[in-house]
Amino acid sequence: MRQAQVLWNRALTWRSGACSWAVAALLATFAAGLAACTPEGQTDAGPNLAAAQPKTPVSGTRHMIAAGHPLAAEAGRMILRAGGSAVDAAIAAALALNVVEPQASGIGGGGFLLHYAAQKGEIAAYDGRETAPQSAHPYLFVADGKPMAFLDAAVGGRAVGVPGLLRMLAMAHNDHGRLPWNKLFEPAIKLAEDGFPISKRLSAMIAEAPRLKAFPTAANYFFDADGKPKTPGTTLRNPALAATLRAIAADGADAFYKGAIAEAVAEAVQGAAVNPGGLTSEDLASYQEKKREPACLAYRAWLVCGMPPPSSGGIATLQILGILQTFDLKALTPASAEAVHLVAEASKLAFADRNAYIADPDFTPVPAAGLLDPEYLKRRAAAIARDRSAGKAQPGMPGTRADGRAAGGDEVGDSTSHISVIDGDGNAVALTASIETRFGSRLMVRGFLLNNQLTDFDFVPNDSGAPVANRVLAGKRPRSSMAPTLVFDAQGRAILAVGSPGGSRIIGYVTKVLLATLDWNLDVQQAVQIPNSLNRNGATEIEKGTALERLKPALEAMGHSVEVRALPSGLHAVRADGKTLTGAADSRREGVALGD
User: Fold this and answer.
1) Nearest CA to 131 among 159, 169, 102?
2) Residue 470 CB neighbour total at 10 angstroms
3) How far is 299 from 36, CA to CA, in rounded Å?
4) Does the N-terminal peptide bond of residue 310 adopt cis geometry, omega within 30 degrees of 0?
5) Taking burial as the number of CB atoms within 10 A of a residue's CB, which of 68, 384, 496, 541 is the most buried?
6) CA distance 552 to 186
7) What was the pLDDT predicted at 17?
8) Worst-scoring range by mean pLDDT, 43-47, 219-223, 452-456, 583-587?
9) Residues 6+ apart with CB under 8 A from 277
10) Which residues, 6 or more positions from 190, have their beta carbon under 8 angstroms from its beta carbon?
């Protein structure tokens, strides 16, 4: 039986001991969607819901890609036009992003890739998360008996994990690639050699990056001779990266993980003038990419699949959906206080479980099945009052407890990028890649920046004498919130690929798009564009400068602590509706969707 149908059947009929559960019958029709949001304009309902000037949705019938930079999206479309698969296009776009969006992702970091093979009906989760080097230990980020300040821990060599992106991409290409591996590198190599114009966003990030100037290789690349950030429109060339990519294109991922490049990475980490680390070339040579079974849940008429642990994004997003399944969200509007309240309360419950239970499953038993058990999610939903916040949520008891106590840490980095692709055969990819904070560790080697992903571990390894699930251990993958997501209809067709950067806020951003498309019947560009609101088991955050600001008094009257702040998601999505593909890119950043 096709794997997509197996997962669908499993989600439709969940068995746990003597208990069984089934979702409601498939919906035959959908409620009418909300009126379209208009840029900077007014509607009869009041202020514009959009957070910024919305981009026009892009339609096509052959294939579609949405990525975080126009040049990266174009690289992916070139590969699709050449007959490449969704995986081929995603790889080409990810490599191009390393060139044009160097502060966010690249071969010096890691990522997660969710793939759907339409002909086989196979859904696969590819894990390219960084690992802690063999020198790592639970007190890596403890100094003088206290957890280090984040920035002190994040810059330099200490926080560099073994990069996993290339090994993961090579595995996915081996399984699902059509074009030769070296062809996928051609657009990125050309961009690196010929150069590209620095965008306003990249120039501003260079100016705002703390301690970037303290690292000579990166400083020489991103700053002028007089020490000023390179200005928008300046052509930025990277011959060192072009040479690195040529070597990997010719000799495969081994060229990165063994030999001169690996030795250069280890030397840079160990010899860092700031915060030297212990990563070795042996750590790189022994890195293992992993293929895992996706985390899936039936939500109303659809099957929603995400990344399993060590990502918390998949399970947390699915938990939010499962908890909200008992509420009639279609009767609400996304800009209503009740909708924001219900999503926030469900999110708090999911984040409480996330912090308590989710870590690297190769080191810590994670009760994933219990966390997604519909009966458990119904019990969690029963704790939500429609008119009053319950305050800070506590973790539930989803069967077997994990080896660890609740953890307090959350990713603060927002240097991540997402790519969504659906090709002409219905194959789909959702790929999220990251180097953690902007410009990662600030260490630049052979033209690429190294990650600081080890700061995604909890700095304090014990809580009340018990080990924290997400503590640092040698060889372990830190917990992540990256949430590449695929949605399937009852016929097993991939109808939506979506994901976002944003640290632990990714979960809220992706959940917004899922609810907006599946419950509120918005088109995918409207879904990406509507204002962000989220809760990570603390304050309810609503997006500054949007219609949601007017909800603050009502939410506070319901007991919410409300923070109004910028919430710059970078959502990229592709929606399939019959023979039509629609791509969407978040106007809060500089990505685009391109198709034919």
Assistant:
1) 159
2) 31
3) 25
4) yes
5) 68
6) 50
7) 29
8) 43-47
9) 133, 135, 156, 157, 158, 159, 160, 269, 270
10) none
CA-to-CA distance for 49 and 334, rounded, in angstroms?
Answer: 9
* H/E run at residue 535: strand 533-535
CA separation (Å) from 396 to 189, 323, 349, 357? 49, 13, 8, 10
Token pair listed for 33 = 């969607």
In angstroms, what CA-CA distances link 155 with 210, 253, 275? Answer: 9, 26, 7
Tell me how far CA of residue 316 lies from CA of 97, 283, 440, 563, in angstroms: 27, 31, 25, 22
Q: Which two tokens stand for residue 197?
A: 């114009």
Give the whole-angstrom CA distance, residue 430 versus residue 420. 5
Q: What confidence tens digit (pLDDT) does each residue in 238-285 have? A: 999 999 999 999 999 999 999 999 999 999 999 999 999 999 999 999
At CA 374, angle to CA 373 and CA 380, rounded to 5? 95
- Per the CB < 8 A criterion, the answer to whether 103 and 88 are in contact is no
416 is catalytic: yes
Instruction: Give dist(CA 409, CA 415) in Å, integer.
Output: 17
Could you tell me which of 585, 456, 571 has the C-alpha nearest to residue 502?
Answer: 571
Cα–Cα distance between 272 and 282 in angstroms, integer? 18
Q: Which of 280, 317, 416, 582 is catalytic?
A: 416
Residues 133, 280: Cα–Cα separation, whole Å: 7
Bridge partners, residue 123, by sequence: 116
pLDDT of 44: 26
**Closest Cα to residue 243, out of 230, 260, 257?**
260
Closest residue by Cα to residue 477 from 359, 312, 313, 351? 359
